[in-house]
Known about the structure:
Blueprint: H1 2-33, H2 37-40, H3 47-61, H4 71-76, H5 81-97, H6 103-109, H7 131-140, H8 164-175, H9 181-186, H10 203-209, H11 218-224, H12 227-242
Helix pairs in contact: 1-3, 11-12
Amino acid sequence: MKKTKHKMLCYHRQITQHLQQLTAALALCYSVAEYCCPVWARSSYTNLFYTQLHSSMRLISGCLQPTQLSCLPVLSNVVPPALRRKAATDNMLQIIEAHPNWPVYADVFEHPPARLASRLPIWSDMTSVDTITQWREDWSSASVVNHTTVTDPTIQQPGFDLLRHTWFLMNHFQIAQGPRRANLYKWGIAQSPSSDCGQRQTMNHAVDTCPLTKLEGGLNLLHEVDDDAVMWLESTATAALVNK
């Protein structure tokens, strides 16, 4: 009885770990990185904050360093940093506009003419943006591997409630970046990029075409996370990962 309870507790902890890390990242990392962001959101130095934010998203999604950056917000279910800053700026402008008696109102809505073209004050872009709509538009035009498998980047992607190891492995296939021999060979870890079938072992090869490991239905079925896909991830894909 105690062993059963212990297994159930461990299972629950692994499932909820994604949400816990997501909450922790928003509370500890993003809250600091976005402090007073309406003031400095248009600065040319905002990219310096991205390093830590990207690390947080990789921790949540299990993505590796070579992952395309556009994929990180989608798989970690965090609004892209630029859109989060724009939403914060729009919200502050709406508050200021509703209080014309505040001294800051004149600074923003009755501001002096711009003196330097290189400066981008808060009133340089006062067009409100719908975050969700803009995120979808940006994703539809993004050049990302396996782009078509994600129909809506703004929602938690299928499989977010899987066990941590299974969820990470699925994301590796989604972004085509994972510990397969083609990558390991490129990183100087494996002696050959070929799989046991003789072909170059990439993530897409393992799920779509390899006669030894392929999943019937390929990557599209894997993204649906039905019972067959989960079983394939936990058995065939995991075994191939151990024996790589």
